[in-house]
Amino acid sequence: MANNTWLRLYTEITRDRKLRRIKPTFRWIWIAILCMAKESPIPGKLLLSENIPVTAEDIADEAAVTIKEVSQALQIFEEELMLHKENGIMVVTNWDKRQYESDSSKERVKKCRENKKDETVTSPLQDRYIAVTRPLHRRYSNVTVTPPDTDTESDTDTDINNSITSSKEDAPAKSPKKASQPYMNHPAVMIYRGVMQLTPKPVLRELIAQKIGDEPEALDRWREVCIEWLARAYNPKNIDGLLDFYQNGGKKMPKMSKTAAAYMALAEKFEREEKKGE
């Protein structure tokens, strides 16, 4: 089998009713099956090689359980349509939907790290920026607050309002056809939506997904960049500028608008109040 290092394990697995109704041993067998399906020469199909299917004995060995337990678990998985067979080969149902392939962002993450290491504070304005954005990062880290009103745009903001709709118009909860919402649930797009309280049009969702990728470190950096952008009161609809800011490692920011300057002053006030309370 190939040595693939990771697979997507969604947090909803702990709330999945089909899994919660079965024994903990069977749940562990399911995790072992997912791992074997990922390492298969044809991901999703339980194969030791292209011509040798995985057996119950192989799964028992992988999960370190008895063959009887595996046989019982496999019967349940097939009844619940979690597994099915194709030409005698066990296949994880909806594998391609849940374990989709995406572009690699390792090089972009590496470059971003290098830029971050080389970044130095060269002016009092940058000192103030760092001091203010850190408490704001803590304040907005849960992204449960309503972003500030940024309808007043600066001269340097790139307005792409025609490519964006409000979350009320395009929210997935109200969409009648989720299948026609490409990249809606991509982690980078979900971070943008959570921070900015906006949902981009499909072409921009795809752009965000391609530029950011789905590596954990890249997504963490993307979240920080979105929060910093919002904290500086820049136009949340300016996705082009936001992606440029992400790619240059946060070194180049647009000229601060009057709205942004006022918000920075408010942020400094918040910081002073926090220091007094410590």
Please explain how this structure is put together.
By secondary structure, the chain is mostly helical. The protein has two domains: 11-98, Winged helix-like DNA-binding domain superfamily/Winged helix DNA-binding domain (Arc Repressor Mutant, subunit A), CATH 1.10.10.10; 106-277, no CATH class. 52% of the residues lie in helices and 7% in strands. It contains 13 helices and six strands. The protein has helices at residues 17-20, 24-39, 56-63, 67-79, 95-98, 106-118, 124-140, 167-170, 187-196, 202-212, 216-231, 239-247, 258-277, and strands at residues 47-49, 52-53, 83-86, 89-92, 164-166, 198-200. The strands form three sheets. Strands 1-2 form a two-stranded antiparallel sheet. The radius of gyration is 24 Å and the shape is elongated. The chain starts with 16 loop residues before the first helix and ends with a helix. The model is unreliable at 143-169 and 175-179 (pLDDT under 50).
List keywords for this structure.
two-stranded antiparallel ribbon; 2 domains; elongated; 278 residues; 13 helices; two-stranded antiparallel sheet; mainly alpha
